[in-house]
Amino acid sequence: MTGSTPLKHAPPTPTLPLWSRLAATPWGGGQGRGCDILIFDMDGVLIDVSNSYRKTIQKTVDLYLRICLGLKGKKKNLVTKEDISLFKSAGGFNNDWDLTSALLHYLLSLSNLPSPSKHPEFLSVPESVSFLRSKSSHIQNEIETIYRKKDITSFTRKVRSSRGGLKGVRKALGNSWEGWLFQFGELNRTNLIKRIFQEIYLGNQFSTFYHLPRLFYKGRGYYLQEKLLISGKILRDLRKRIRLGIASGRPRFEAELALKRFRLSRYFDSMVTLDECVAEEDRLFRLTGRRRDLSKPHPYSLLRAIREIRLPHPRCAYVGDVVDDMRAAQAAKRTLPVLAVGFLSGGKKEKGIEESLLAAGADLLIRNPKDLLRLVST
After folding, report:
1. Can you give the pTM of this predicted structure?
2. Beta 47-48 vs 227-228: how paired, if at all?
3. Which of 203, 358, 369, 370 has its CA 20 to 30 A from that of 344?
4. How far apart are CA 22 and CA 213, in angstroms?
5. Which whole-number Å values give the CA distances from 99 to 168, 202, 325, in the listed order?
6. Are 272 and 251 in contact (CB under 8 A)?
């Protein structure tokens, strides 16, 4: 099979053991070898981010509502981890800054705030916060009221039917509350959502990387709460047999922070991050005058990670845990033979997660990282 031969998608059968299902996949049966290249998503696959990125989303929403908009209330977890999973399953939210903006957009639609006109540009973060506080100060809003109104399950169904992402959120809401969302521009000016998010996630590493003071959060960085999901021993055993790579939506600095912290760099031959996607988007924009989003579910990061390994006509697999990962793998099949492997981290058995991964095109579902060793030796 050549690298340019497209593959037909074979629907997975999740009730069978992995080695039985593998025989029914596009390259699994009776061909004498298994996978040549295994590409991993990072968050939710290599790294448990339930207490880092997911909690950062929760904390960012809380601080934005309280500090920037002056909302009051004792309710701490306005956004739950289940809410975040539902948004992820709707598709189009590979970027956690976008997901945080989407959650705030929906929650503000449940408030008494009017839909404002586009906000002006400001010179500093304090001016931006002052503007928001002055516009919202005369309107009574309680966080508990928003909590009672929210129905994330129903809303994310609408977002999914509107093709997901921030565009799907805008379409599902009809009216826009984006005038209350300072989510664009530089971190030292009007991008308050990203500024808060990065301060929480990075902690004291924020000033190291951005050369800016922390204004919203002074605690330890949530990245310190991350844990490995796939052990170094399994990665070492995999690396003895095949080549490994990473295609992640993380910024490169944060991806390298995790690789260094868990001493994983030695196992991987390539890594493509958000930085490489943005650089390629900028290059294409200069050439064509058109802006394209190359983040997942676009297959760019996955295909680039494979090509940087430089094996001729490889048989590949991509291991991811969310809808956008499976869609990226399916899209990559137009160019290379890629198996879409859905990883249910921590042995998750939630029916909704399984169904969303299968619907997005997962060829296989695995719960135990040791099953990856079977995948590469088949």
Report:
1. 0.87
2. antiparallel
3. 203
4. 51
5. 12, 18, 15
6. no
Q: State the residue range of the domain holding 183.
A: 53-224
- Which tokens sit at 230? 């796939």
Percent of the chain with pLDDT over 70: 88
Mean pLDDT of the chain: 88
Examine the domain organization and report whether 245 and 189 are in the same domain. no
* DSSP output for 155-183: HHHHHHHTTSHHHHHHHHHSS--GGG---
Length of the chain: 378
**Range in 15-19, 156-160, 348-352 with the lowest mean pLDDT:** 15-19
Last residue of some domain: 179, 209, 224?
Answer: 224
Question: Per the domain annotation, does 57 fall within a domain?
Answer: yes
- Do residues 188 and 310 share a domain? no
In this structure, the answer to whether residues 57 and 202 fall within a common structural domain is yes
Amino acid (1-letter code) at residue 108: L
- 64 and 209 housed in the same domain: yes
Q: Report in angstroms the alpha-carbon separations of 303 from 74, 307, 308, 325, 358.
A: 47, 6, 9, 12, 21
pLDDT at 74: 82
pLDDT digits (tens, 9 = 90+) for 342-358: 999 765 556 678 899 99
